[in-house]
Amino acid sequence: xxxxxxxxxxxxxxxxxxxxxxxxxxxxxxxxxxxxxxxxxxxxxxxxxxxxxxxxxxxxxxxxxxxxxxxxxxxxxxxxxxxxxxxxxxxxxxxxxxxxxxxxxxxxxxxxxxxxxxxxxxxxxxxxxxxxxxxxxxxxxxxxxxxxxxxxxxxxxxxxxxxxxxxxxxxxxxxxxxxxxxxxxxxxxxxxxxxxxxxxxxxxxxxxxxxxxxxxxxxxxxxxxxxxxxxxxxxxxxxxxxxxxxxxxxxxxxxxxxxxxxxxxxxxxxxxxxxxxxxxxxxxxxxxxxxxxxxxxxxxxxxxxxxxxxxxxxxxxxxxxxxxxxxxxxxxxxxxxxxxxxxxxxxxxxxxxxxxxxxxxxxxxxxxxxxxxxxx
Length: 376
Description:
Elements: H1 7-11, H2 25-42, H3 50-53, H4 61-84, H5 90-121, H6 134-141, H7 160-179, H8 185-206, H9 219-239, H10 244-264, H11 268-284, H12 292-325, H13 330-338, H14 340-375
Helix pairs in contact: 2-4, 2-12, 4-7, 4-9, 4-11, 5-7, 5-12, 5-14, 7-9, 8-9, 9-11, 10-11, 12-14
């Protein structure tokens, strides 16, 4: 959790648009959280549902909460100076984020639709055909499934968090201006946690469910407080008022407490506080020896997140066909299930390097030419 660096390097502002500390603990946690989400979603397709073996396997949603907090933190650190300096407006910022997310979502949805259609031609239905409706497909293609309207589940189901984040991205410049007016670390952290606690109490009063148990179409309500918490942590780290000794202690204590909480039972609010402490500590402690491999793993996390529903549909579809035709022993069933994890990693690698990265490069080149053409 700890890395040391000279004070003058520590206090030097990062270049605009670059998050300090790439290749360090936060990047490693980003990849591990993406992997945990895959295990969490694939757990229901195991020979025995993983959460039936131990309840801790049913708390993979905390990894999504981590990503929502981390999104606010990363954007605050990467783009906060540009926003405050007036060099990046709300429309331009939202356009950049949609450009990053939307093509990948559309390509994965198209691949899912192709698999479902091809399977139907040969008489093979998905395990849960009710998850593949036209309404849900359109809502996910428009990133609107987390905006309060039911019926947008199934397909690339985990993308509800991206749907919610689109709204958070739109509000980011205004929220960052507001959060930046606070200078006290205590006030910033209290504001972030108060947003989470207040959101939880509001959901219990109006919907009758805690904020962590909301249906996906209420995802925006879940995402906004966590995103704001991430912004507040970014401001605390930017101010640099937390000493490195305190940051080290906070990081290890938060990590240990998070593990013990998961073993003891379900304590979501306390777990969120621990996750916030880990993000704050890892963000505050400089990375002395950045790892290129860890940085690549962090970049891969988005591809792993966006594609694993496709991989799961294909992989477990084939497993279901095998199990219907052959009496597979339990050991073979578990072996086939375990193979889904490296399969998800392989597909995400292929998608990241051979699909998403070239598409993003092409888009960047096309959009860069537009102002030149208009001037001409």
